[in-house]
What we know:
Blueprint: H1 5-21, H2 24-27, H3 34-85, H4 88-97
Organism: Candidatus Cryptobacteroides excrementipullorum
InterPro entries: FtsL-like
Transmembrane segments: 33-52
Amino acid sequence: MKWEFGKIWELVKNSFTATLRGEFLLRLRFDRWFLHIIYFFVLCTLNIWITLEIEQTMLNEERNKERLEDLKIYHAQKTCELVSLDRLSTVEELLEKSGSRLTVPEKPADRLK
């Protein structure tokens, strides 16, 4: 049972041409397993696709967490500024600095009939 180089070359050549023609799996009798192969391919593709979607979602979540932290800091700063402007004395000082003639009313507003 000696293998000759010519027979091995012929086997490789036939396998290569069968692969190019799409007959290789049929020669190996994989036609009965064709649906299982397609099913396996679909499952692998779905697995890869879902994994990529999960990674993209996690990346978006990390970006949103960073943005939320920045917005929390911005909100705290604006709240602090508004609290400081809420004092009547601060408002009067700002009006005087801007040259406004508005002042605190000395008597309550009258109701017109």
